[in-house]
Write a structure and sequence with these properties.
The complex is a heterodimer of chains A (about 120) and B (about 675).
Chain A: E1 3-7, H1 11-23, E2 27-32, H2 35-45, E3 49-53, H3 61-71, E4 76-82, H4 86-94, E5 99-103, H5 107-116
Parallel strand pairs in A: 1-2, 1-3, 3-4, 4-5
Chain B: H1 8-33, H2 39-58, H3 62-81, H4 88-110, H5 120-136, H6 141-160, E1 172-180, H7 187-198, E2 203-208, H8 218-225, E3 227-233, H9 237-245, E4 250-258, H10 262-277, H11 285-294, H12 308-329, H13 340-364, E5 365-367, H14 369-386, E6 390-395, E7 400-402, H15 403-424, H16 428-433, E8 440-449, E9 452-459, H17 466-475, H18 488-493, H19 516-525, E10 529-535, E11 539-547, E12 552-560, E13 563-568, E14 572-576, E15 583-585, E16 591-595, E17 598-604, H20 605-608, E18 622-628, E19 631-637, E20 639-647, H21 653-658, E21 664-669, E22 675-679, H22 681-685
Parallel strand pairs in B: 6-8, 13-22, 17-19
Antiparallel strand pairs in B: 1-3, 1-4, 2-3, 5-7, 8-9, 9-11, 10-11, 12-13, 12-20, 14-18, 15-16, 16-17, 18-19, 21-22
Helix pairs in contact in B: 1-2, 1-4, 1-14, 2-3, 3-4, 3-5, 4-5, 7-8, 12-13, 14-15, 15-19
């Protein structure tokens, strides 16, 4: 069981992820609708894993990733991204994201990624 | 609204996408106003389309997803290349068309039908537009690619620059071939992850395909042939294997130690040559960050969305609770008992229930802004079609009303704005001839007035034609009084009557056979009223008076015989016992009463509803004066029972379908369990 923080501006995406995670025994301890809130929640909740969307208002996923890494260099961050954003995903990997999930995602993919880190 | 109960995911999808579309429309209309797209707005549209694409792909609504994708591409191009020549009108039309398409599909989906419409045509149109855009701005595909390359090349340097070209120490050399699972997507980025994981442990790192960073089509090669990595390291084969085995979505790994490394040396040469070629790292990360700061001022509220049906249920429950409270506190068994402690507790209960009521009400309150902003789009479309110049001003959009009410005022409002645009505002030449400013103004204003909200739609057009209205009213036999006696206000309000429409020709936007009477019907169903005022050549003002909420009202309970009635307190002016000599009966037998020199008609409730009562003489009963739109009427009843908050319930279908019982707004349960009929002040006048 992992404690997960979901950061995505689309409530729909948060719900999809949450459904998948909770169905499989993980715990979603927090949600955030942009990078800024995401960082705040990270500080508050200290989750095992963070899923980060890239394109978000206020603060995007990459900036948030860097900030989270500043707070805890060992933070486990998974990038959730759509096709066509390969460049950003690469950047995220360099900044220390553990892995990534491609939207639209399947339950199987999400679990595999989550269980592998 | 929805006919089927949806799965929560679908519901969320529809809700959020609809919201995004609203935002999109807002951005587009704002941009058009300043006739350019700011960087922030372009980003917004990009982001909205990106989100819609992602969500609809998850829900397998492919036509929406691909449409959103093509719009995302278009805005990506605009964002990255900042073309100088853009036909903004065409761009706006295109995006709005796209938004409309998605909107229509959403409605289909919401109604439980398949979203089957084909977006190909529209996508094609967007592609053509994008192609033209590239052409006229002389940006070829090649140069866009270059742009992207410039960005990625820097990353590559950042990565390889660390230690890969250090002199080769005497270490073991390995070759690894990594195969990924089918369907895991973005294989090239996954390959990049592999490199990233290795880079701290190995040196002299080379890989094939070597352009995974620049070229996303390499994922196809990796999918088929695997990703080949060459490196030297001092770690053992086992450790390296372990690290590589950790790769997510790894299907198969081939790892071997190399002896003769010709393949490798070849590689190295290529790599170095390539690196020398590309030394132009100008990347605009900073710009993006600045952009973000620029619009990070919006509020940080934490909000959850709840389905309306739950709120409706909560509202009903609170309503029931109010009734139950009355039943307990006013229970007939308690009559005549002295119960100090009970009264104290009852007061406490009363306080809490009324607080709860207020809370539930406030939860259901929604600002009018979304409804108002829809009018921007209508104004825009109509101005284009009618070739008029009109400015729409919105005041007080933050005013809140009950969610149910919002649904009822959207259509009337749209109708009124259309009317103002079509009939009210004159063509530009006429305006100039009259010495008015070239562009017309329509103002929509909302404000609170007691327990009502006023929505005022004002235009500075030609105003209503008094004589025309009178003529038309005479033709249609709608005059209820002689012409000379009617005030301007009364004449103008004639247009609200059913069967009235001054426009001879039917245009595309307004006057599709439904007229102002439909507007006034709609507003009346939610307990509101409409009034019209106009000045020749100065414009027309239409005021909608709308109650804040529907469900719970303050009412005065009255008794007639064994029946109970409730009159909304808001419409009661006064109540009094009449004196014998105030009563007047005219030759037709109409009864009237004189109050402070004014004469008012009297309505006997017991006659109206055929109720048996002993009190038929005015001086034995009580008169309640009700007011509606400056008209007054005196209602005669047996006695007043007291004031109370009542929960409005709709009348049962079998009564409503009769349509012969008039003047009722609904019914309610009283504290002693009896049913009371709620009188509709407006309806009583039309008897």
């Amino acid at each position: 069981m992992k404690k997960v923080l979901i950061v995505d501006d689309a409530a729909f995406m948060r719900l999809s992820l949450k459904n998948i995670l909770e169905k499989n025994g993980h715990q979603v301890i927090g949600e955030a609708e942009n990078g800024k809130v995401g960082i705040m929640r990270y500080r508050e909740l200290n989750p095992d894993v963070v899923t980060l969307d890239i394109t978000m208002p206020e603060m995007d996923g990459l900036t948030a990733l860097k900030e989270i890494k500043k707070i805890d260099n060992n933070a486990k961050v998974i990038i959730v991204s759509a096709m066509g954003q390969e460049g950003f995903v690469r950047e995220a990997i360099m900044y220390g994201a553990k892995s990534f999930i491609v939207k639209p995602f399947s339950e199987e993919h999400v679990l595999k990624v989550l269980n592998s880190i | 609204m929805s006919k089927l109960s949806h799965e929560p995911m679908l519901e969320m999808f529809i809700f959020e996408t609809a919201q995004l579309l609203e935002q999109l429309e807002q951005v587009i209309i704002n941009s058009e106003k300043i006739s350019s797209y700011t960087e922030h707005n372009i980003n917004e549209v990009f982001r909205i389309m990106h989100t819609i694409k992602g969500s609809s792909a998850m829900m397998l609504f492919n036509s929406i997803a691909s449409l959103a994708h093509s719009m995302e591409d278009l805005f990506y191009f605009i964002r990255e290349n900042k073309p100088q020549k853009i036909d903004f009108t065409e761009l706006t039309d295109l995006i709005l068309e796209g938004a409309d398409f998605i909107q229509t599909e959403l409605v289909e989906i919401e109604n439980g039908r398949e979203a089957t419409a084909d977006s190909c045509l529209l996508i094609e149109k967007i592609k053509v537009f994008l192609g033209d855009l590239k052409k006229i701005n002389q940006i070829s595909d090649q140069s866009c690619k270059n742009n992207e390359k410039a960005e990625t090349i820097k990353q590559q340097q950042y990565y390889i620059g660390s230690d890969s070209f250090a002199p080769i120490p005497a270490k073991k050399m390995f070759k690894a071939v990594v195969y990924f699972e089918e369907g895991c997507q973005m294989e090239n980025v996954r390959a990049f992850t592999v490199l990233h994981n290795l880079k701290d442990l190995v040196s002299n790192l080379h890989y094939f395909p070597s352009n995974i960073v620049e070229d996303d089509s390499t994922e196809e090669i990796i999918r088929v042939d695997g990703f080949k990595v060459f490196f030297s390291t001092e770690y053992s084969l086992e450790i390296i294997r372990e690290i590589l085995m950790d790769t997510i979505f790894l299907k198969h790994l081939e790892l071997e130690e190399l002896v003769g490394a010709e393949e490798l040396i070849e590689f190295e040469k290529n790599q170095q040559a390539k690196l020398r070629e590309t030394q132009s790292p100008e990347i605009k990360m900073i710009e993006r960050e600045q952009d973000l700061e620029a619009h990070s001022k919006s509020l940080n509220q934490s909000i959850i969305s709840v389905s309306v049906s739950k709120l409706d249920t909560l509202m009903d429950l609170v309503g029931e609770m109010v009734i139950a409270e009355a039943m307990v506190v006013q229970n007939p068994d308690l009559r005549g008992l002295e119960l100090d402690n009970f009264q104290k507790a009852a007061r406490q209960l009363n306080k809490i229930t009324s607080e709860m009521q207020d809370m539930v009400m406030s939860i259901r309150m929604v600002p009018l802004s979304a409804t108002f902003h829809k009018m921007h789009r209508i104004t825009r479309d109509m101005c284009k079609k009618l070739d008029k110049e009109v400015k729409l001003e919105i005041i007080g959009e933050e005013t809140e009303v009950d969610k149910n009410i919002i649904e009822h005022i959207s259509d009337p409002l749209m109708h009124l704005v259309r009317n103002a645009l079509d009939h009210g505002i004159e063509p530009t030449e006429d305006r100039l001839a009259k010495g008015k400013p070239k562009s017309g103004t329509i103002t929509i204003e909302a404000k609170n007035a007691g327990s009502d909200v006023l929505i005022i739609i004002k235009d500075d057009g030609k105003g209503l034609d008094r004589d025309g209205i009178l003529k038309r009213a005479k033709e249609n036999d709608l005059l209820y009084r002689s012409e000379e006696d009617m005030s301007d206000g009364e004449v103008f309000n004639l247009i609200l009557l059913p069967g009235f429409s001054t426009k001879e020709s039917v245009s595309e936007f307004s006057g599709r056979g439904v007229g102002m009477d439909v507007v006034s019907k709609n507003i009346e169903t939610i307990g509101g009223s409409v009034s019209v005022d106009s000045v020749q050549d100065g414009g027309t003002t239409i005021t909608l008076k709308i109650p804040l909420t529907l469900a719970i009202i303050d009412g005065m309970n009255i008794k007639v015989g064994k029946s109970r009635y409730t009159i909304p307190t808001a419409s009661i002016k006064e109540s009094f016992r009449p004196e014998e000599n105030d009563i007047i009966t005219d030759p037709q037998g109409n009864e009237m009463i004189m109050v402070r020199g004014e004469c008012y008609p009297i309505l006997r409730l017991h006659e109206l509803y055929n109720v048996e009562t002993k009190i038929t003489n005015f001086i034995e009963g009580i008169i309640i004066m009700v007011e509606q739109d400056t008209k007054n009427l005196c209602v005669f009843a047996d006695e007043l029972l007291g004031q109370q908050q009542v929960v409005v319930k709709t009348l049962p279908d079998y009564i409503r379908q009769l349509k012969t019982v008039k003047g009722l707004a609904g019914c309610t349960l009283l504290g002693d369990g009896s049913i009371s009929l709620i009188l509709d002040a407006g309806g009583l006048f039309n008897l």
